[in-house]
Amino acid sequence: MARETTASLPTGVSRRTLLAAAGVGLSSSLAGCSSVFAAEDDQVNIAGSSTVFPVTEAIGSAFSEEHPTVNVSISKTGTGGGFGNFFCAGRTDVNNASREIADAEIDQCGNNDITPLEFTVATDALTVVVNPEADWIDCLTVEELREIWRADGAERWSDINEDWPDEELELYGAATTSGTFDYFNEAVLGEDINHKSDYYATERDRTIVQGVQGSEYAMGYFGFSYYSENPDSIKAVSIDDGNGCVEPSTETAMSGEYTPLSRPLFIYVAKESLADSAVRDFARFYMERAATDLVSDVGYVPITEDQRDENLERLEEQVAEVNG
Amino acid sequence: MAADTSEAADSEFGRVSRTKDTAFRLLALAATLVGIVSLAALLANVSVDAVGWLDWDFLTSPPHPDPYEAGFLPALVGSIAIMLLIALITFPLGVGAAIYLEEYAGDGYLTKFIELNIANLAGVPSVVYGLLGLGLFVTLLDLGYGTIFVAAFTVALLILPIVIISAQEAIRSVPDSQRQASYGMGATKWQTIRNVVLPRAMPGIMTGTILALGRAIGETAPLIMIAAPTTVFGVPNSFLSKVSAMPLQIYNWSSYPETEFQYGVVAAGVVTLLVVLLSINSVAILIRNRYQQDGS
């Protein structure tokens, strides 16, 4: 009996320590949980286009300096990937988009009770680039561009123009989940013609730059900001839409001369998320800053002040509706 | 006779040759140096690139598209938060499993089967664990994509086999005579484990766990699989916050158009990651040394 009590004494002590430790663990995890629910409001989750990403990153960074407790996250998923897997599935509050939302995506959002609100935030000049060594090319007509990028189109440079080298075209373009792909498809190829499928498709614009730098016979396309950061290592091709060659730049995009490849960039905000004060603040902040140098610094054309006021007005209407 | 033996030696071991002796020594030295030189080259290369970029502002600012304003804070805090949670998850699970396998389980086929499985799990590529995390935590349990919670559990599963195996080794190295002595004094199995086995094995367990954490902090593939965001602003404010981690942020910066990102900012990130990693490893060494002094 005596032995049993002495033997059980240390056991008892350690069991008590164990219980205490378990208690501390449990209460701290409960505390964690309560802060989890309290903090739910301080999240703004964004997915979508890699073209719009730099704009949203610049604005997100400025926003977080003013609102340090809000956790803003941005994923690069491509416009379509963002709508399909994140925004319309109710996982994100905002979607970056380099094209308008498609009907199928509106339906998908509707099935999950999400109302997408469209806001134009910048204008981009989609840029076709070639290697700087490719001295035979400075300008392309839209027809030539279509011949290069359509399915069963040209395979060699000489197929388009006999004076051009008899070398195979190496094409680098946006992946099919990308809004850039969709926009290019619509603007250059039109609805009836399919985009070529044997090209190097990527969501990483950097890969396109590297591909085009690497080969004299390569061609690629992406948002203007990527070209404006690498003007020496790749060459932008001017586009002739029937009115002569126009080179891509923020000026020609803003004046509307650079057709058909200048395009509006959007963000879509889920109306339901506007009930959340962090998303509301972020959306307001975004609309205000979209008309400033923050946008031109990353290589896009900011919206005009009229557009900004129109955006803000529409936003406030929706905010009032959600909270009213 | 002497001539005979030397001839025999010649035929069996080859001619005595100082040149070969020296050559082989140099060859072995060169083999050793490859590792050290490449590490030194790497460190020197990134350190030189990071000069002027790695400063206090870099460590305390959020990311930004302008390389001169870009910061690392959310990724740094995110990595540390993930790591602490991983430690909380893997330590009890790993040590518990190791104690069961070494002290309680018999030598039957089942135990052998479990141990074989754990050894195999340790070799499964990390991207596969990422898929597991995506399927289990994000889709099935719906804990939200890319949160600290999901990231920590996914990477914890990844390093758990390593923790179990190193804890097993540590427990196995405790001499059986000490256990027998404890039983001889009338101690129960639990008392023996608590008072004899664990204190003796603890330095080994700690070292193994912390080294595994060092591996965890460098993991990128599982985080990409669970859809951790490209960029996060602001410090995570709960376990369900979206989280970015240092290797992920570095990977993302490497795809930015500006060359300042590809060299300066990425290098500053790499140096920060290496410094955190090396501090973790040195903590492991410190803990091991301390426990060893206490034990003796």
From TrEMBL, chain B:
Membrane-related topology note: Multi-pass membrane protein
Superkingdom of source: Archaea
Compartment(s): Cell membrane
InterPro entries: MetI-like, MetI-like_sf, Phosphate_PstA
Presence of the UniProt keyword Transmembrane in the record: yes
Keywords assigned by UniProt, alphabetized: Cell membrane, Membrane, Transmembrane, Transmembrane helix, Transport
Pfam families given in the database record: BPD_transp_1
Record flagged with keyword Flavoprotein: no
GO molecular function: phosphate transmembrane transporter activity
Positions of the ABC transmembrane type-1 domain: 76-284
Transmembrane segment boundaries: 26-52, 72-101, 113-137, 143-165, 261-287
GO biological process per UniProt: phosphate ion transmembrane transport
Protein family membership: Belongs to the binding-protein-dependent transport system permease family. CysTW subfamily.
Protein name, UniProt field: Phosphate transport system permease protein PstA
Species assigned in the record: Natronococcus jeotgali DSM 18795
